[in-house]
Amino acid sequence: MSKRKIRSFSRDFKLKAIERMESGENVSSLSAELSVKRELLYRWRDIFRRGGELALRSRRGRPKRAEAVAMAAARGPASKATDLAAARRQIAELERKVGQQQLDLDFFREALRHIEASRLASDAPGATASSPVSKR
After folding, report:
1. What are phi and psi of 103, to 5 degrees?
2. Which one has a higher pLDDT value, 40 or 129?
3. Which has more confidence, 46 or 2?
């Protein structure tokens, strides 16, 4: 089994590639020129958009504590605001779902009550055992 060498790219290389992508350069031709897969270019761009320049690391693996703190600080209150807005949207969606489930429960409770009431009427001696015939 042959081992593939994993290429690592510097932060500057990634930033220049992203800059060229953002300027409107064709990603396929940029990929061929830099000998980097298109998917990797898009991944770098997404990481850059989410975490800024510090998120584009030149090493593989988990960031050191200082880097992680710096990335969190770089994201700043804007990301906290978007996180808060996303959480509020999710809470509102869950509250809507709970309300819909409550309506469904009320409907089925009422339907069960009607069925049990009709069964009680037909349990008397001499009563018909089936439900009334539809007049359609």
Report:
1. -60, -45
2. 40
3. 46
